[in-house]
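Ticket #4471: structure export looks truncated?
Reporter: QA, pipeline team
Priority: medium

Steps to reproduce: submit the single chain below to the structure queue and open the exported record.
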Amino acid sequence: MTEANKKEQITTKIWTEVAEADNPFAAATCYCSGFDVYGDLLGNASYIEYLYLLFKLEPPTEQQKKLLEGLAIALANPGPRDHSVRAAMNAGVGGSTRASALIAAVAVGAGNLGGGREVYNAVHYWEQCGTQLSNWEEMIKNPPVEERVDVWVPMEHAPGFDPNGTSCATPVRQSLSYLADIGCSEKLNWLDQNREILEGYASAPLAMSGVAAAVMHDLELTPDQSEMLFILLRLPGAAVHALEQEGLGWRRYPFFGDGLKLQEYHSAESGE
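Actual output as written to the record:
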């Protein structure tokens, strides 16, 4: 292979393309981890199966497919109380572009409070603690130092738990119970059985981010992959709430209530 040909190669294990005979810039065949996307996967694989293939470069088992599908439904719409969804709604009602609404949701939903970085840290906890309560107690009470202090401030609460919660929310308990059951997962069942003990260590109830981290770890995703996938799976809710609020306008913004009162403006120059 010549030096010029080497420079033309795209380095990726994920994707391979065969160009059209009459156009080297258009793909005739696309392979994802060896699978013909448009000739084989399209029409035969579900979106969840394809999503798993993109991240893991191998098809999911039936159990893994159901587990990821259940998690995707649980995360798809965090609801308008969630910070990332609120950010998208603010963009929508303020007249920003639709792309800006999604970017706002990603930016706000990427952080340490119920966001992608929290899931990243929680998956790290799973990697180091496994299903040993003593390890979890030590990790929660003596958390490790953040590796990227130039970007991320230290966590102010145990990752995967809600520092503002008073008890474990019903959707969190329902999601954990369902996912533990369909996944036949030792780790998820262990979390379900020991949830209250862990909540005692954290002095906070389990959050949806904690459930997501357990599932991601069970799917053998790395912390980096888990962070990305968590942010991605929550975007549908942000998108639809932003569109809805854009249509409703600021007068019907759900969190104003009676707290916003408008007064007529009187100009001092006009004497009105």
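Status: closed, not a bug. The export was complete when the record was re-opened. Leaving a note from the reviewer for reference: The mean pLDDT is 89.
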